Amino acid sequence: MAGKGGSGAKGQAVGGDGCTLTEKITKIDLNSGSLLESMSSGSTSQNQGANQQKPKQQKQQTEDISDSNSSEVANDLNAGGAGSYKHLKNRRLSERDDCYKCCMEADHIPPLDSWKRARQHPEFDSLKYINPALHKMACSLENDKTGQNLLAIEVPTQSHRVNLTTGNSKISQSVRTLLADYIVLGQAERMLKLAFIVAHPVASNQIRKDAGFPEKECEGIVEFREERILKIYRKGFLELLELYHEKKVINQEELERLTEFVENKRFLQRESDEYKEILGDVKKNIPDQPNKQK
């Protein structure tokens, strides 16, 4: 979990890297799938000079991208790209178009906080004998406090905001602790299956609904349909698995099982053991309801 972004008044969006879009609206051409820009009609100084005229508040204009035409846009945004958090961030910052810098974020999988919690676990030292590669990744935080070298995927900002691991709620903290426990146990396969479920915005909202919570929504500069979101996360999860395999965190058999888990969208299947475990963890954190007075 890392990076912050969002949209404010008309034509303005601020990302975690500090970029600001001034009087700039990004739209989607549904016919070609290309990004169109309505550029600034005045400089920042001109806007400051017109400070006395309060601009009308208007919702950021966004449109769904038709699935058949959106792959080009997704590729331009590096949606679903996997790599170190630092690599993904630097790639985004190198884009000439400020929109790209503000509508995407790198999401640690598992979350950075889970790595930190794992290192504080009393049984953490035993991990070096169970899964040395996983232990090495966790220990990298000693000289890399913000997890710049830990693995992440590039996702739409609004999707990152929706997943169950984002935020400081009791549920989010409990889910991150659950992942930390599996890191300490060295059970990388199980940990990654659970991490994929709670990192996925569709699965996260499905679990909220099943647990009796309202679904969470967050608007972004560029809106993707659910079908495209599924493709973005599929790409990211599969690329991430290859990287964890290269680092010897998972072996070939685990890679094959995890690949099957992603390909068959088992992170959305309510009957899977992993889904049930996350749902149970979320349900136990439901706030107590006050007794109704008769």
Helical proportion, percent range: 40-55%
* Broad shape: globular
Stretches where pLDDT is under 50 for at least 5 consecutive residues are 1-69, 289-294
| Overall domain count | 1
Q: Name the average pLDDT.
A: 77
Strand content bin = 5-15%
Quick structural gist:
The protein has 294 residues and is mainly alpha-helical. The chain has 14 helices and 9 strands.
Task: Provide key terms for this protein.
single chain, 294 residues, mainly alpha, three-stranded antiparallel sheet, two-stranded antiparallel sheet, 9 strands, 46% helix, disordered N terminus
Q: Would you kindly provide a written description of the structure presented here, covering whatever features stand out?
A:
With 294 residues, this protein is mainly alpha-helical. It has one domain. The chain has 14 helices and 9 strands. The protein has helices at residues 44-49, 71-76, 85-93, 98-103, 112-119, 127-130, 132-139, 157-162, 170-185, 188-199, 201-211, 226-246, 252-263, 273-283, and strands at residues 5-7, 13-15, 25-28, 35-38, 64-65, 82-84, 104-108, 151-156, 223-224. The strands form 4 sheets. A 3-stranded antiparallel sheet has the order 6-8-7. A two-stranded antiparallel sheet has the order 1-2. Strands 3-4 form a two-stranded antiparallel ribbon. Strand 3 (25-28) and strand 4 (35-38) form a beta hairpin. Helix 5 (112-119) crosses helix 9 and helix 9 packs antiparallel against helix 10. The longest helix has 21 residues, at 226-246. The chain is globular and about 45 Å long. It starts with a strand and ends in an 11-residue tail after the last helix. Mean pLDDT is 77; it is low at 1-69 and 289-294.
